[in-house]
Amino acid sequence: MNAIIPIPPRKADIHGKQGRESLARMVVKLFELWGLNTGDQAALLGLSSDSRSTVARYKKGSPLADNADLIGRAGHLLGIHKSLRILFPHNRDLAYRWVATPNRRFDGQTPLSIMTKGYEGLLAVRRYLDFERGR
Questions:
Q1: Mean pLDDT of successive 10-residue segments in the chain (135 residues)?
Q2: pTM for the complete prediction?
Q3: What was the pLDDT predicted at 3?
Q4: Structural domain for 42, as ranges
Q5: Are 30 and 5 in contact (CB under 8 A)?
Q6: How far is CA 90 from CA 48, 102, 105, in A?
Q7: In a domain, 5, yes or no
Q8: Are the beta carbons of 45 and 74 closer than 8 angstroms?
């Protein structure tokens, strides 16, 4: 569980094939660290539950589709990961478990359940973590 997800350089072309391959690798690794099932992975990427084959292709190294929504979601997921690593610098296990742990801020729901409800849920969790980082 000590794996670190590399962050691409700021000037990386995220719409180019190489950039999207890199994003796919990072997101797949993040899903692995969070211990997510394929259905939750698809939901976080904005895919239908019938899109398990698309998630499987990303796991095999295919680049993310050149789709603004998908790339935006990947960016927010990686931003959530970054915030958790900053908030829990000495406890990686907690940082990785956090998304599946009920949270009072979300009325006892897990952040994962909020994030899988749609793009707004993903943004709500990211905003919350950004706020906590700034305290």
A1: 58 80 96 96 92 92 95 97 96 96 97 97 97 88
A2: 0.88
A3: 62
A4: 17-134
A5: yes
A6: 36, 21, 23
A7: no
A8: yes
- Residue 120: count of CB within 10 angstroms of its CB: 10
Give the position of tokens 């394929």.
38
Closest CA to 86 of 21, 31, 131: 131
CA pair distance 59, 54, nearest whole angstrom: 9
Residue 52's pLDDT is 86
> Could you tell me if residue 1 is inside a domain?
no
Give a three-class secondary structure readout of the chain.
CCCCCCCCCCCCCCCCHHHHHHHHHHHHHHHHHHCCCHHHHHHHCCCCCCCHHHHHHHHCCCCCCCCHHHHHHHHHHHHHHHHHHHHCCCCHHHHHHHHHCCCHHHCCCCHHHHHCCCHHHHHHHHHHHHHHHHC
Residue 16 has a pLDDT of 86
Q: How many domains does the chain have?
A: 1
